[in-house]
Amino acid sequence: MSKDRILGSSAKIELYTDRGVMTIEVDGFSKNQKHEVKARNPLGNIGEHHQVIYKGWELDFKLGKVDGQVAEFFQTIDDALLAGKSTPRVRVVETVKHFDGQNEVWVYPDTVLFGYKSDAANAADEIKEEFKGACNKRLRG
Length: 141
Hints:
Blueprint: E1 11-17, E2 20-25, E3 28-33, E4 36-40, E5 49-53, E6 57-64, H1 69-82, E7 90-97, E8 103-119, E9 128-135, E10 139-140
Antiparallel strand pairs: 1-2, 1-7, 3-6, 4-5, 6-9, 7-8, 8-9, 8-10
């Protein structure tokens, strides 16, 4: 029996920071493996041999602005960097609700956030926020 496709609106993102939890309703969230494939030709063997080099995950967040919590958190990141400290890390929890009632949960621990962008190009339209993240692993929640 086939299942219905899952809508993107079923994704929720939680950022666990030192100030508490920020729950964000996202318009778009994408994650990409940064893995790299290395090909080599060992002596005495025919053809190429391939090895996957693990390099972690890249995360992209797109959302509509509802309050100042995301902008404030990025100000905290800027303050830390300008003071010569390391970037504050967050734990990202992605929850996708399936139509059959099951939840698919992925955790991205020790994530750094960067690349904050706010767009208010059209005064009649909503203000959009975007940012990126990078982490070295993904775990089942």
